[in-house]
Design brief:
107 residues; alpha+beta; Ybab, Chain: A; three-stranded antiparallel β-sheet; rod-shaped
């Protein structure tokens, strides 16, 4: 029974640490950019866009498609960076808990 109790304690501790990581993700911000910095943005680890900056030199009414593409690329860059940070942090947490690094989590 001791092993089961230890496993339950470990699971509870892991659950709490994952919740803490999720809370930190909401506060964490990452940056993204496109067009060599002509479009920049900031996003939380939970993919909430916080800021978007566009260099005025690319604002041309007759060429909106270029600006749209740069905004999409910028936001996707920030999202990928946020995902990488979260993957790295989750991996560290799993390693601390003695879990396999590629284990599929149900959350």
């Amino acid at each position: 029974m001791t092993n089961f109790a230890q496993m339950m304690q470990k699971a509870q501790k892991f659950k709490q640490k994952m919740q803490d990581l999720q809370d930190r993700a909401q506060q964490m911000e990452v940056s993204g950019e496109a067009g060599q910095g002509m479009v920049t943005c900031r996003m939380t680890g939970k993919h909430e866009l916080k800021a978007l900056k566009i260099d005025p030199s690319i604002i041309k009414p007759d060429d909106a498609e270029v600006m749209e593409d740069l905004i999409i690329a910028c936001v996707n860059d920030a999202r990928m960076r946020a995902d990488k940070v979260m993957t790295d942090e989750t991996g560290k947490l799993m390693q601390e808990m003695g879990l396999p690094p590629n284990m599929d989590l149900p959350f």
